[in-house]
Amino acid sequence: MTRKQKRLAVIAGGMSFIIVAVLLVMFAFSQSVAYFFMPADLAKTEVKPGTRIRLGGLVAEGSVKRGQGSTVSFTVTDGTGNVPVTYTGILPDLFREGQGVVTEGTFDAVTHSFVADSVLAKHDENYMPKEVADRLKADGVWNEGQGNEGKEAATR
Amino acid sequence: MMIEIGHYALVLALATALIVSVLPAIGARRGDTAMMALGTTGTLTVFTLVALSFTALTWAYVVSDFSVKNVWENSHSLMPLIYKYSGVWGNHEGSMMLWLLILTFFSALVAVFGRNLPETLKANVLAVQAWIACAFLLFILLTSNPFLRLDPAPAEGQDLNPVLQDFGLAVHPPLLYLGYVGFSVCFSFAVAALMEGRIDAAWARWVRPWTLAAWTFLTAGIAMGSYWAYYELGWGGWWFWDPVENASFMPWLAGTALLHSALVMEKREALKIWTVLLAIMTFSLSLLGTFLVRSGVLTSVHAFATDPTRGIFILCILAIFIGGAFTLFAWRAPMLKAGGLFAPISREGALVLNNLILTVATATVLTGTLYPLVLETLTGEKISVGAPFFNMTFGLLMLPLLVVVPFGPMLAWKRGDLLGALQRLWIFAALALFAGLAFYYVHNGGPVMAIFGLALGFWGMFGALADLWYRGNFSKVGLSVGLRRLAGLPRSVFGTAIAHFGLGVTVLGIFAATTFGTETVVEMKPGASVDAGGYSLTFDGMRDAVGPNFTEQRGHFTVSRGGVQVADTWSSKRLYTARRMPTTEAGILTFGLSQLYVSLGDPMEGGGIVVRIWWKPFILCIWGGALIMMFGGFISLSDRRLRVGAPSRKAKPVKPALEAAE
Asked: What is the pTM of this model?
């Protein structure tokens, strides 16, 4: 190989690695990105069972029921819609009724309830996950000073 | 009074930094020695003033002076003394003060140890450092002043965030910042070189120790942060691909690339422009990390209070420094003389491959971190990019790098012999594969593909040993001569081998812990037992307890193996009274390199409690490997060839290839 060919081969090798990386990133985005929904959105857009989403809202008062072992069921609400959620595992320290929550999981094809595999109660100083607080403010459901009992808490 | 002195010192530091950011640079243009010398004294003055200011703030914390707003918000008189010290940087204002303190500390180090630098280069570097200091001094004074007073002074403070009341806070931020901010020196050197329009191998030689020092501290800081999150948060994970973690990981990846490309530049005078670009990119990523963590665009344990003006201010700093540096680069880089060409199969070729993979991997992490933020700003749509994305992209892209790492040191400069390297390494590869198989067989379970992952870890470790084995030529000359040969090698060779070995240990730990680990969530009543990792865990019951600033309910667990009790531990749910904030304290038991991790959930009706038990085999390898990497960094740093100012030309005329052009 001449010097020029060698250099071309090196550049082609580098470029192909970068192209592979770009394709991989695009593929991973299509596969593993979870969109954020609130109960009201689900009335408008249909989410197929098996599609991973994040569901956020408030834990409805009086809806938390403990089932067998560590399975818990509760309802996520945003004032207009309600979605029943089941979750098996340990709930975060800051999980409680009337407070904001973000769950991640899929809809069950048979029961149409939301099966969460992770429950996050990541809070800013107003005891509300940022995504949920933003939307509640936008929808006018937000009252200033809501749940203002703690500060700078973040947990899952 | 102390507080006012601290406040005043900070303002004085700004005034001095303004002078240092202008005069030495002008002096360097005009060749005015007196003006250039001002850089050294000015930099030392700025450091002294900032240190004084930081001391004043620390003093306010130690004596619990609640008339200072910052202390009132983040301290409590009953807090243990160590947290009063570490609590100084456990909040937004204080952590920016620490950032600034470390920045000026590095500037002072350049001023002191840069005696042998060309006068103009040193003056320019100190000026650029002073620009950064000015920006952050302004940021602190205008938007995040820790010295504001309260009148009347409250009697008691609001307490520090309980998650931060831990020894980790005393260690993690300073180490992380030493790394993060340390890259500012590389940035300043790059910008100074662009300003002078001249760059050579000597430049790389001056930059390398700074890169190495910053990289070493950043490695330790990230590992420490990961372990802290692991034991404190009670989630049982050691890396969450959280944007805040990525913010510190990206400068590390770019810094690792910089470390290797500076090597090529020093030894072969190639990759000059690339190295300068990489130095700018690394510190830009550090600044981006500061922006992500400090501006409040993300909600996390690291985002203390959110204030939009701060975010915009840091964004401006980011835009000015990154934009300015890249503009300067675009304008001046064509003037720099490009380096020579080289063969793809050679040491420098391998280092280029390392750079290619590391920068592409950094870019994927950057994409995954910023994409949700950009999408939300543009369309309002909220998405989350989590671990699956990063495992699929970053994980896969890094695999080829882990395969080629042992080949790098085996190849010669200029023209490497790949076939020869293969011949030397195949036995070590076979050993690694065998070790992976044996490991998998002993622990039994998990997907078969894990064998390759484990073998990859062993390959990294054995490859590093192979490097030393062949350098000592043990197979031909025997043990004693071989050892003597090794003793004669420069320390940086050992640094490389140790760091690569550490990388292998970390990789092994990651694969072992994810393949063989188990997780059990179960409801337990007092007296019940659960098996995990060959141990039997018995729940003995709950008890109430009171700490200095919290109350807790703790569960006691006894661990036995084969019917014999081997250990016991407490796991608790705490409530910090001042903030009414609950936390979970996990019970962690260490057996060799493996750990048993017990975390409490909610109490059930009928006296039971939900308990989550993880068996984490070889988990300590993950952080142990990082510590070994850090150790390698220090060994390499102690190499006398790297010490700035060490007389090298006269002392060592034998190896011209290693000498820097003056």
From this structure: 0.90
